[in-house]
């Protein structure tokens, strides 16, 4: 799973789900990740054998995602804006999960993991996507809690 960064705060229970029968490819979710810059929201991504390859930061107006190999390229080298018009967290989550379901193999190939890309299991990817939505709902409004605690600004 992705490495938590010193100085950041994380609220909610972490979720990890396999995306391939081997268990080497997983999807993780931090329900709320509070960055040092006082922005935050859910963060989830795809790891291969512990290396973070794709990361989505659906943080509303300042949301973005990382492709091409997050650990390999770093945050700046992999940073990608969400498509124009995706400015709310919910639509960013929906779009991001669709990217994993519909383009996961291509994204892994582009990041230099062609063998792993072929092992993605569509049923496991679908189940993991559903689990993210259910888990966020179950965790409740942690975003407001983070604001109340001064961890992020509104």
Care to describe what's here?
The protein has 154 residues and is an alpha+beta fold. It has one domain. It is built from 5 helices and 7 strands. The longest helix has 22 residues, at 89-110.
Fill in the keyword field for this structure:
40% helix, seven-stranded antiparallel sheet, 154 residues, 25% strand, single chain, alpha+beta, 7 strands, globular
Count of beta strands: 7
The helix count comes to: 5
The residue fraction in helices comes out at 40-55%
Largest sheet: 7 strands, antiparallel
Q: Which stretches are poorly predicted, pLDDT < 50 over at least 5 residues?
A: none
Topology:
Layout (H helix, E strand, L loop, with lengths): L8 E3 L3 E4 L6 E10 L5 E9 L2 E7 L6 E3 L3 H9 E3 L7 H22 L3 H6 L2 H18 L2 H7 L6
Helix pairs in contact: 2-4
């Amino acid at each position: 799973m992705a490495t938590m960064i010193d100085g950041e705060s994380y609220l909610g229970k972490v979720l990890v789900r396999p995306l391939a029968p081997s268990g080497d490819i997983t999807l993780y979710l931090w329900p709320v990740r509070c960055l040092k810059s006082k922005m935050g929201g859910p963060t989830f991504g795809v790891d291969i054998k512990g290396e973070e390859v794709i990361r989505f930061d659906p943080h509303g107006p300042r949301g973005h995602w990382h492709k091409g190999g997050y650990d390999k390229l770093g945050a700046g080298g992999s940073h990608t804006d969400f498509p124009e018009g995706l400015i709310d967290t919910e639509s960013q989550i929906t779009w991001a999960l669709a990217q994993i379901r519909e383009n996961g193999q291509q994204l892994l190939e582009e990041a230099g993991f062609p063998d792993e890309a072929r092992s993605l299991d569509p049923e496991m990817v679908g189940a993991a996507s559903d689990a993210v939505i259910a888990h966020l709902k179950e965790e409740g409004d942690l975003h407001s809690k983070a604001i109340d605690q001064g961890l992020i600004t509104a």
